[in-house]
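S.,

Sequence below, as promised.
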Amino acid sequence: MEIITVERKILEKNDAIASGLRKEFLFRKQFVINLLSSPGTGKTSLIERMAIKTKNIFSTAVIVGDVQTDNDSKRIGALNIPVVQIVTNGGCHLEANLVRDAYKNLLDLKFDLLIIENVGNLVCPAGFDLGEDIKVVLSSITEGEDKPLKYPVVFRNSVALIINKTDLQPYLNCKASGIKENALKVNPSIKVFETSCKTDEGIDEWISWLESKMKSK
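The prediction came back faster than expected:
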């Protein structure tokens, strides 16, 4: 019972900070994505492709969460995108206080979209509100078709699923259609996109949908 009490206190504190962040994002007219996935699905590659394709459409900033290294933020920064790195030193997810502190480094900048690239993990990040407008889960062909069934919470809490690395389908015993089918079992309303950062398949469709979400805010 004590563990439950401690966990509840942690989440209540997190939610209070997230609520303040959400008001700040709304005031500044910034749309915020909490991008979730397991390691190696292509989060950073997707951000790179988005940045290149949307540079004349809307402006983007990124907060990157990693257990160690600043490899991803260096890749993103090379595209002249404002980026702040959070190193959790073993922490398996980002919390609202970490995002709040990182966001302070972006206050003097104007941008339309903030992408929070969460730590690669399909369990812990799913339960933490970061003040985002939407959670988006990224899966990949290399992971197999059963991830939505094994880790249902993150798929249930996300409004969109991006199935990445579709160019590898001919070489693997996994199909995007299988991942999509299982995701819809968990969350019948989830919007699904099939993408390849290598061939650009589906990237434009994903960006078009995202634009419509941004405009509605």
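Residues 44 and 72 are 6 Å apart (CA to CA).

Coffee later?
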